Amino acid sequence: MSTISGPSAAALHSLSPSEIRFLQSLPKAELHAHLNGSIPLQTLVELAQDLPPSTDTDNEIAGTIERLRSGLTLDEISDFFPLFPAIYALTSTPSALSRATRDVLDAFLKPRNDPLPGSIYTPTPECAYIELRTTPRATAHLSRYTYLTTVLDEIEKFRPDQAALIVSIDRRMSDADAAECVHVAIALWDAGRRVVGLDLCGDPRRGDVSTFEKHFRRGKDAGLSVTVHIAETRENTAVESRILLGWHPDRLGHATFLSREYIALFFTDVPQPGTCGPSNSNTNIIQPWDPRHPLHHTFFAAYRKHLERIRNESTESEESRQTLSFHFDTDKGARRAALKDVEALMKERGVYKPCIEICLSSNLLCGTVRSLEAHHIQYYLANNHPISICTDDTLPFRTTLLGEYALLLAKPPLGLGLNHEQVRRIAQMGMDARFGKGK
Ligand SMILES: CNc1ncnc2c1ncn2[C@@H]1O[C@H](COP(=O)(O)O)[C@@H](O)[C@H]1O
Predict the structure, then answer these.
(1) ipTM for the whole complex
(2) May I ask the CATH architecture of the domain 7-268+350-432?
(3) Where are the domains of the chain?
């Protein structure tokens, strides 16, 4: 009953059996999947049947299941988050949470034993490795600690090279709740449980990210890796992105509206001539002396400083200082010195190329990206910046990891039209960005 539909289904159906077999043969890592957004619909239906009748929640649960069954249309991303209270009502006991986790892991790591009717390919596991993420909730039946151990008990039934857990902190959380989540995550990590990282998630229009900094620093200091949802919507401010990038997360989720300025300031990409910046910016890569360059202000301040120095140090007569060639030479000298300063600044920042977790269907269906052609993946591909292809929430977005990879291979307009070698490289980048490897 788990159906795939929408952009990824269209892309998958356009591929030949041999192209699908190629995608299936790639070792793939799913690095951005939210547990409660990835539960197979049939599991939710059965969990709803098991629930004792309650006039408070029955209607909401039935309504949400119906919406999910018929396929969501979202006008904007904020329509997405109200789905979760009904799903949470179904996963709030230890047994329901175990069942949901088990079914999510099976969907990613085991081949389906009931191939979809009319399917042109033999099912194989969706991925070789998954880092499942979830927000520990305290309910009437679970503490945050038991929530996480319940999920971990299921994850640890798989080998360490197959499955691991990322603990999500919701940006709507209070300071005390966030502190408790991180405390429990560290305690479990210290106890040798398979927690590998922390994530900052939740409605991108809510909360103040700066309040979480100390908690994420504690996690990092304890040895956990960090990923954050960043610039997922146009409303996420530059100030917020700057704060989050200041934490130097190991990976970034979405980064849809991350500005060209911050990419230049924080990432050690070497921009390729003729490539466009993300955030729907279509300016070609330009030099620091151009006012449109992200480091123009830094360059210009250095230029003025050097110009003044060169003039002060000059032994030329007053008369020759008035000549065009004097102006020309000093300008050239100051420009060269300022460029050196900018280059040194970039070097000083060190190599920072955090993998971007790309969720194509999620972005298209939430309306944060208009089309594949306008998707920020194009910038990262052109600039050789690490990315990983992920599903985000397979349940509402009605996708699979294979479907997301089909979006890479399918010919435009259904897909990006990448070749086999490019797709193979992207799959490898995902595997390389695992938090779990080697730990
Ligand atoms: C669409 N893009 C997204 N952006 C931000 N946060 C998202 C998300 N998709 C899901 N979540 C976060 O994950 C929770 C559900 O899984 P868990 O209860 O943690 O397992 C949601 O409540 C939301 O906070």
Answers:
(1) 0.99
(2) Alpha-Beta Barrel (3.20)
(3) 7-268+350-432, 296-348
